[in-house]
Amino acid sequence: MSAVPEKRHIPDRLGTSVTRLFASWEALLVAVAAVIFIANALASPYFLNAWNLSDATFNFTEKAMVAFAMALLIIAGEIDLSVAAIIALASTAMGAAAQAGVGTPGLVAIGIGVGAGCGMINGILVAGLRLPSIVVTIGTMSLFRGIAYIVLGDKAYGGYPASFAYFGQGYVLWVFSFEFVLFAALAVLFAVLLHATNFGRRVYAIGNNEFAARFSGIHVERIKFTLFLLTGLMAGIAAVCLTSRLGSTRPSIAQGWELEIVTMVVLGGISILGGSGTIGGVVIAAFVMGLVTFGLGLLNVPGIVMSIFIGLLLITTITLPIIIRQFGHRKSA
Amino acid sequence: MKLLKKLALGSALALAMLASHAQAETIKIGLVVKSLGNGFFEAANKGAQEAAKELGDVEVIYTGPTSTTAEGQIEVINALIAQNVNAIAISANDPDAVVPALKKAAARGIKVISWDSAVAKDGRIMHLNPSSNELIGKMCLQLAANHLKDGKGDFAILSATTTSTNQNTWIEEMKKQLPNFPGLNLVTTVYGDDLSDKSYREAQGLLTSQPNVKVIVAPTTVGVLAASQAVADAKKIGDVYVTGLGLPSEMAGAIKSGATKEFAIWNPIDLGYSATQIAYRLVKGETDGAAGSEIAAGRMGKIKIGDNGEAAMADPFVYDAKNIDEFSKIF
Question: Which regions of A21-128 does DSSP assign to beta strands (E)?
C-alpha cells in the first residue's frame, strides 16, 4: 500500500486538471445515484414507497459505518481487511455476554470495546512493528474469525435482551431507522474529522508522501495507530447494529463484508493508492450500492448478476481516473 | 460517462424483464434458496415451476443470495416483501437470523414456510423436510455398510460447513443410530465448507491420515463429488469408497469410475413442487398449516404436518449404476 508510483503528481490540492477531475467525481456519483433512483422508480411500482426505501437502507448502513473509517485508512495509504472478522468476533463476544446475563448497555460496551481492541492489535502490528497492513490484516482476519469459530463452532448465540433489538430494528422517527440516523451522524462526524481538522490534513499528507510527512514533523505512526483503532471501533459499532438486527450470532456473520466495504470506499472516489478522496463520495457510493442492490432485488435479478454489476462499477471507477491521468500525462509530455 | 451508459443499459434491461412478466392478479410465491447456482436448488425450481404451471394462477419467483449468508437472504426477503408477494418458501442459511425479517413478512400478510433447511419455529408457519432426518441418517449408515465387506469397518464423514443446520442434524442422527449397525465405526468428521477445493483437500487428508477408513460418507453433493475425485486421483478406487447424498447429474462420473457404488438423495424436483403446492394452499386459505393437519400437494399426495409444524415429504431414494443414466438427465 505504501508503494509510491514514480512520476507521481500530488493529486490533492495540486494540478488544476486533476483537482477538477476529483471535484467532478462526486458530481458524477450523484448523477449515477439519481439515474439509478429514477430508473428503479420507473422499473418497479414498489420502489417509491417510504417503508420499502427504509428497508433498503439496511443493505448499506452497517457497511458504510465501517467504510467511513476505512476511507481514512486508505487515504493514509493503509488498508484493513480484517473488519468483517472483527464484526464476527465482537458479535461473538456480545453473544457470550448475553448468555451470561449482561444487559443492553453492557453488551454495547463489549461490542464496541472488542472492536476497538482488535483495531488496536492491527494498529500495534502495523504502526508499532511497521509491518505492511495488507499482510497484517489478512492474518488478523483469519485470527479473529478463527476465534469466533472456536468459541461457537456450529452453535449460535441468541437470547439477546428485548431492548437490544432497538439498534438494528428500531426507528427513531417515522421511517428513519436508528441505523440510518446513526449512519448520517457518523457521516457528518467523519466528514468534519477528515476535511476540517489538522488530523484530517495529516492523513492526506501521509497518504500523499509518507516520507515528506515524516520530515514535516507529523507523527506518522501515531496517526496510523489511531486510524486502525478507529476502524476497529467502527467495526464494533457495526457489529452492535448487525447483531441487533439479526438477533443471533453465528461465526459466519458478516462473511465477505471486507470486500464490499473496500468496494464502497473505492467507488466513493477514494484513491486506492492513497492521498485523495472525500467522505461525501463514500456516502454517495453507499447510496449507489444500496440502491443498485435493492432496485435489482425488486426486479428479482439474481445476486450473481448483481455482483457482476457491482464489479463493473468498481473496475470502471478504478480505471477511469488512471486512464484519464495517463492520457493527461502523455499530452503534457 | 461509461458508467452512466452501463447503468442506463442495466436499468433498461431490468425494465424489459419486468414488463415481460407483469401480469396482474396472480399469486406470487418467492422461492428463496440458500444460494443461486446450486444444482439442487435449480432442480427444486424446476419442480416449483411445474407446480405453478399445474396450478395456473401462480408465479414463482426463484431467488437467493450469491453466497450462503443470512445477511444476503435478508436482503432478498426485504425485496420480496417490498414486491407484495403472497408467500415465501425459504431454505434458510441460518435458522435464527432470518426470523426478524420473516416475522416482518408475516406481519404484512405474507405466508411463510421453510423447506429443505429449516427456519426457527417463530419465523414460519410450517417446515417441509425432504424426508425425515431419522431416515436420512439411517440411509447414510446403510450406504456405508453396503460398501463394506460384511458391513464392518471404519468410515469418516465429510460435511459442509460447521454451521449448516441440516448437515449437523443428519450427522447427529447417524451417530444416534450407529449402535444399530454393529461393526460400523465412525472415525472422524471433517468439514469441506461446501467448497470443491476445500472438500477435495479434506478428503485427501482423510486418505493419507486415516488409512483404515474404507468409506467416506458425504451428506452434501459438493463433498461427495470432491471426495470421489480425491479417491480416483489417489488411485484408491476399489479400496476406498465414497457415498452419501449427491445429485445424479454430478455423480454420474463417480458411479462410472467405480469410486461410488451407490448414493441417495430425495428428489429436489418433488421438494420444490411440494413447497409451492403447500404455499399456494396456505395463500388460498385451504389450510392453516397447523400441526396435525393434512395438506394436499398435487401429485405428491397428502402431506401430514407433525410436531413443531414440521412435515416429511418422502423417503430418500437410492441411485446406482442401473438408474443413474435416467436420473442424471433430470437433475
Answer: none
Q: Enumerate the residues of chain A whose CB falls inside 8 A of the CB of residue B7.
A: 32, 35-36, 39
Residue linked to cell 451470561: A100
Using CB atoms, which residue from A154, A299, A309 is nearest to B168? A154
Compare all CA atoms of chain A with the CA of B10 and give the residue at the minimum distance.
A309
Looking at the DSSP bridge assignments, the partners of residue A67 are: none
Burial label for A173, CB within 10 Å (0-12, 13-18, 19+), is: exposed
In chain A, the number of structural domains is 1
Which A residues in the span 145-204 are in contact with B, Cβ-Cβ below 8 Å? 149, 153-154, 156, 158, 165, 169
**Tens digit of each residue's pLDDT, chain A (333 residues):** 445 455 555 555 544 555 555 556 777 788 888 888 888 888 888 888 888 888 888 889 999 999 999 999 999 999 999 999 999 999 999 999 999 999 999 999 999 999 999 999 999 999 999 999 999 999 999 999 999 999 988 788 888 998 998 998 888 988 899 999 999 999 999 999 999 999 999 999 999 999 999 999 999 999 999 999 999 999 999 999 999 998 889 888 998 899 999 999 998 989 888 898 999 999 999 998 888 888 888 888 877 787 788 788 778 777 776 787 777 666 554
Provide the CATH topology of domain B133-265.
Answer: Rossmann fold (3.40.50)
Q: Which CATH number fits domain B26-130+268-314: 3.40.50.2300, 3.40.30.120, 3.40.50.620, 3.30.70.1450?
A: 3.40.50.2300
Closest CA–CA distance from residue B172 to any residue of chain A (Å): 12
We report the CATH number of the domain holding residue A55 as 1.10.3470
How many CB pairs below 8 Å do chains A and B form together? 147
| B233, B236, B263 from B321: Cα distances, Å | 21, 19, 10
Domain with CATH 3.40.50.2300 in chain B: 26-130+268-314, 133-265
Pairing of strands B58-63, B111-115: unpaired
In chain A, residues with a C-beta closer than 8 Å to the C-beta of B35 are 303
Distance from the Cα of A101 to chain B's closest Cα (Å) equals 20
Whether ipTM > 0.90 holds is no
- d(CA A246, CA A242) in angstroms, rounded, equals 6
